[in-house]
């Protein structure tokens, strides 16, 4: 990109050494941020598959109010969370419904809004509306997909 867009030639070796230098510089800050994860009041967590040198890993993202912390790990299991966050997490853990989150966290939780939205859209596609009876005689509001698309 540097060479193509800015006409600044740079070798692959120089790129690698720059990445290594930057990693060294930010290493202590990265470790400090990692230590702060268990103390967060609210922590959003998600993971996705990642390949490196033909090896399957998991890219974990931990989103706080102040920063995002990424971690590559071969594990997608509960023990990884215990090692990173401790045996219990005292804050609100926001996740999808992947079973390891349910097995790990017994405290306050919030399900991912996107996943809840997809569930509701799935109900719309199968039933055509989201109408429901609510406590106190209120009627839930939904819509008929044929009249208005939620997307």
CA(first)-CA(last) distance = 36 Å
Oligomer: single chain
Number of domains: 2
**Whole-number mean pLDDT:** 84
- Give the helices and strands as they follow along the chain: HHEEEHEHEH
- Percentage of residues in helical conformation: 25-40%
- Strand content range: 15-25%
User: Might you state the CATH topology name of the largest domain?
Assistant: Nucleotidyltransferase, domain 5
| DSSP summary, beta strand count | 5
CATH architecture of the largest domain: 2-Layer Sandwich
Overall spatial form: extended
Low-pLDDT sequence parts: 139-151
Could you explain the architecture of this structure?
The chain folds into two domains: 2-111, Nucleotidyltransferase, domain 5 (2-Layer Sandwich); 112-151, no CATH class. It contains five helices and five strands; from the N terminus they run ααβββαβαβα. The protein is α/β, with parallel strands linked by helices and 151 residues long. The model is unreliable at 139-151 (pLDDT under 50). Helices cover 39% and strands 22% of the residues. The chain has a five-stranded mixed sheet. The chain has helices at residues 2-6, 12-36, 78-85, 99-104, 113-127; strands at residues 42-52, 55-63, 68-73, 92-95, 109-111.
């Amino acid at each position: 990109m540097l060479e193509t867009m800015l006409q600044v030639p740079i070798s692959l070796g120089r790129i690698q050494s720059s990445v290594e230098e930057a990693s060294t510089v930010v290493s202590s800050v990265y470790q400090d941020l990692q230590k702060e994860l268990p103390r967060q009041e609210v922590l959003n967590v998600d993971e996705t598959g990642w390949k490196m040198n033909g090896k399957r890993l998991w890219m974990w993202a931990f989103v706080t109010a102040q920063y995002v912390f990424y971690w590559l790990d071969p594990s997608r299991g509960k023990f990884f969370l215990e090692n990173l966050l401790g045996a219990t997490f005292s804050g609100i853990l926001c996740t999808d419904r992947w079973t390891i989150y349910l097995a790990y966290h017994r405290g306050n939780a919030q399900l991912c809004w996107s996943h809840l939205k997809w569930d509701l859209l799935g109900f719309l596609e199968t039933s055509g509306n989201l109408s429901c009876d609510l406590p106190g005689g209120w009627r839930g509001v939904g819509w008929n997909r044929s009249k208005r698309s939620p997307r």
